[in-house]
# Entry
Amino acid sequence: MAGVIALLYSPRMKTPAAPSTPSCTAIATTIVCHTAVWTLICGVGALGSYRDYAGAATHGYGHFLLRWLLYHVPMIMLGSGLSLALNRWPALFDSARRSALVYVALLLFFLPLEWLYVAFCDVVLRGAGVSLEVVGSAFMALQMFNRFTEFAWMSGTLLAMAAIGNWRLAREREAGWRRAQSANLALQLALEQQRMLALRAQLEPHFIFNALNAISALVRTGDGPLALSGIARLSDLLRYALAAGAREMVTIGEELQFVHDYLSLQKLRYGERLRFTIEGDCETVRHGDCPPLLLQPLIENALRHDLDSHDGEGDIRLSFEVLGNDVLIRVSNPVQPHATPNPGAGLGLQNTRERLQSSSKQASLQTQRANGRFLVEIRMPLQAA
# Structure
């Protein structure tokens, strides 16, 4: 029975912040629903009464059903009224104080009127003349059992409506919380995407600036053919940078090819001074994915703090190591104790760290100095692109 009542009371519910006056259709629907529920209840009760008097009864089952329905008209009105009140004020039973006030009001006003109605029905069904004295006498003679029964029906109806109202309110609040969570997640995703776009916008001009510096160094030396070759290589690099920048992920193999092309451009500038080695470059690593333009800023940072700080040969190393489900990427360069400081703009490592954290919460970037070398370590999940 509780499931039937819950089903009937579960139609549309207004939010607590926006009460509204129910329409005539809503009022009629509510009354019909309550009438149907109480007809079912009265049908069961009438069946019990009919069986109790089956041996001596001169009336059929319909007579008992009609009596039960007649006696429970106030319950239909009470249930309908509470349901409509909940539609207008969904938080009616949200606090113990309001619930207690409604209960006391029903005890003081509704219950005496219901007892009076029951006494009136008794007079009418007995066929006695209806007068104030007769109804008053019937009211005073109403048995304690009947009074308690009506009290129990009223309390049960109120309890059921309060439970259903609070359930609907809790469901609406949960739905509102979920909507807020979804909106919050969507906002966070949009902010994260804007942040990634901003980082890329910083990275690409920074990469172009440094590549142009390499070409301008060739121009200053008066080596025109090499400068033209550098411009052609830069065009290829920019083509990849623009294409990769529009993607969320690229393969490590694509990034390695980009690094080789970038080093070819830088070799036009540094010549034989540029010494570069790669270790652990296997197929498993090459098929893994990573954020676009991940390795180039690290190589660029190594060049700036190595070859740009002295006149000797460099020794830049790039290595890969598979550790379970992760890949460990190391980029290192020697630290010259008496080299001229070259701090640069400071965008490379910072941007790389932020982009890594945005792409995967498990990814990390660490830096350290060990054995006369500056080391950058990236650890991130090794996933197929």
About this structure: The chain has a mean pLDDT of 80. Residues 2-183 form one domain.
